[in-house]
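TICKET: design request
STATUS: open
ATTACHED STRUCTURE:
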């Protein structure tokens, strides 16, 4: 694997996704997936004859930019999908159940963990070049498990194997039923599983800033790890994969754009695919990414794990995508049919003022609604749009066939346009 290093300027501070070597001195605004190693943890050289989990490297990795190249809306941070346990995984395989031993001292996090932890699993992927691990959430008693696409991407290609260890310590072989890179989700099926504890999902649309949030997963391969915090933000637009001056709002499969839940509950490498639950222990999101501080920035470190800025895919989106994958092997998403770049403020080029339409696809929902090149979308429904990434996230958070109202600036005029969204897979 080739190591890629990038810096991202914005919001008066530099951020970067975190390779283990120093950053280049020249800012590189384009993010490219894939880099080995995490923090100071060793990544042994791959040996094909070694045991399946004897050598571990990070797999299916990508960087996410919070916002677009022009800062605004989501701010200008960089977050990374990171999944690697500590080298040598002896302790990682040890199951540890979460129980309430002393009800008198139990907290909200105690109760939430006791309810949800039996439904969270550790996912191991082994290929000819190495191995790594992440987390997952049990969907059904007969063995369907939801995780991130980037956790199992290499195993899904047929070049490796996937195993899953449940909370009670049982290890299963697993197959990848289907993946959706655009939402960074994948569904596994455990071989011979029965009577698993399926997770209970809450309505993620009801999540509020300040609500209790508990993250459960296998950071650094440490299964059944529980951390707690609050919901820091909802509807946070984050994007991963190649980004440039324009972004397609619904195609561009190489770019994952999430309408994410943000939390300060500690999320670290290996938490990806695990559960973010509410105070009742019901799943509200699938943990996916963390923000990291760039090296070379005053106060920053060469590498960092959790800094209190983590992101999860909303549970409602995750459930819909998972059910479609189980039924058909693929998932659909809403499609507007434009490519857009971020419109910059005249006085400050670092401030976005909307998503400026660069192209309109023939026969698309956008064309039927009368959108034109040069139009600037400033809101989807009641949701403000200041960057192209926010437009992408807002559209993908909707369902195919749904009618939405766009606020559009055309020259000096503002108007509203009703659009019935199309469908793409």
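STATUS: resolved
RESOLUTION: sequence designed for all positions
ATTACHED SEQUENCE:
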């Amino acid at each position: 694997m080739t190591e890629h290093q990038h810096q991202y300027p914005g919001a008066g501070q530099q951020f970067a996704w975190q390779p283990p070597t120093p950053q280049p001195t020249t800012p590189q605004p384009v993010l490219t997936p894939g880099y080995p190693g995490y923090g100071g943890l060793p990544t042994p050289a791959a040996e094909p004859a070694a045991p399946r989990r004897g050598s571990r490297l990070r797999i299916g990795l990508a960087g996410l930019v919070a916002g677009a190249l022009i800062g605004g809306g989501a701010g200008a941070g960089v977050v990374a999908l990171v999944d690697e346990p500590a080298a040598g995984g002896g302790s990682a395989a040890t199951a540890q159940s979460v129980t309430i031993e002393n009800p008198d001292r139990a907290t909200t996090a105690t109760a939430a963990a006791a309810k949800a932890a039996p439904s969270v699993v550790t996912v191991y992927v082994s290929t000819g070049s190495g191995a790594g691990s992440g987390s997952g959430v049990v969907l059904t008693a007969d063995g369907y498990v939801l995780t991130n696409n980037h956790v199992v991407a290499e195993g899904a290609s047929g070049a490796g194997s996937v195993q899953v260890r449940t909370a009670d310590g049982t290890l299963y072989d697993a197959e990848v039923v289907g993946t959706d890179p655009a939402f960074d989700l994948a569904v596994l099926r455990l071989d011979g599983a029965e009577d698993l504890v399926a997770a209970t999902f809450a309505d993620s649309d009801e999540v509020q800033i300040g609500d209790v949030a508990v993250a459960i997963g296998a950071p650094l391969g440490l299964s059944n790890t529980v951390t707690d915090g609050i919901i820091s933000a909802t509807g946070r637009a984050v994007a991963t994969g190649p980004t440039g001056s324009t972004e397609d709002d619904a195609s561009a499969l190489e770019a994952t754009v999430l309408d994410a839940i943000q939390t300060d509950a500690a999320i670290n490498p290996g938490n990806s695919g695990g559960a973010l639950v509410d105070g009742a222990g019901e799943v509200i999101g699938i943990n996916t990414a963390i923000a990291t501080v760039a090296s070379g920035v005053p106060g920053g470190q060469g590498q960092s794990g959790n800094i209190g800025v983590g992101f999860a895919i909303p549970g409602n989106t995750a459930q819909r995508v998972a059910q479609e994958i189980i039924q058909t092997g693929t998932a659909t998403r809403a499609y507007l049919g434009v490519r857009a770049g971020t419109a910059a403020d005249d006085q400050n080029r670092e401030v976005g003022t909307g998503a400026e339409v660069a192209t309109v696809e023939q026969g698309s929902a956008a064309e039927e609604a009368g959108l034109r090149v040069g139009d600037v979308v400033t809101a989807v429904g009641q949701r403000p749009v200041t960057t192209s990434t926010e437009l992408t996230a807002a559209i993908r958070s909707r369902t195919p066939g749904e009618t939405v109202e766009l606020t559009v600036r055309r020259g000096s005029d503002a108007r509203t346009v009703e659009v019935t969204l199309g469908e793409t897979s």
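CLOSING REMARK: The longest strand covers residues 225-240. The chain has a mean pLDDT of 75.
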